[in-house]
């Protein structure tokens, strides 16, 4: 069978789905949530949100002060 026939018959789809399921399970595992990369991601998100808030607050105060 050719690769196209395999894909049409769902063989490729099943392989891709099983790989995606395995990756999703790894991302949902407690070990990953305790990992350094997951913690770093949290810090980046919180830091970005904090500085975005500071920027918006500064902009609002500046606009109010000019009027």
Quick description:
The chain is an all-alpha fold. It is about 85% helix and about 0% strand.
What's the N-to-C terminus distance?
Answer: 74 Å
In DSSP terms (H or I, runs of 4 or more residues), the helix count works out at 4
Biggest beta sheet attributes: none
Shape, principal axes of CA atoms = elongated
Q: Which oligomeric state applies?
A: single chain
Tell me what the structure shows.
The chain is 87% helix and 0% strand. With 67 residues, the protein is mainly α. It folds into 2 domains: 1-34; 43-67. The longest helix has 31 residues, at 36-66. The termini are far apart. 0% of the residues are buried. The mean pLDDT is 81.
What features would you highlight for this structure?
4 helices, 67 residues, mainly alpha, 87% helix
Which SSEs are present, and which pair or pack?
Elements: H1 3-8, H2 11-27, H3 30-33, H4 36-66
């Amino acid at each position: 069978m050719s690769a196209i026939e395999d894909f049409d018959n769902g063989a490729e789809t099943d392989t891709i789905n099983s790989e995606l399921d395995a990756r999703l399970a790894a991302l949902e595992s407690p070990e990953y949530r305790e990992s350094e990369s997951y913690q770093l991601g949290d810090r980046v998100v919180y830091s970005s949100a904090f500085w975005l808030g500071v920027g918006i607050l500064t902009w609002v105060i500046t606009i109010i002060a000019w009027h």
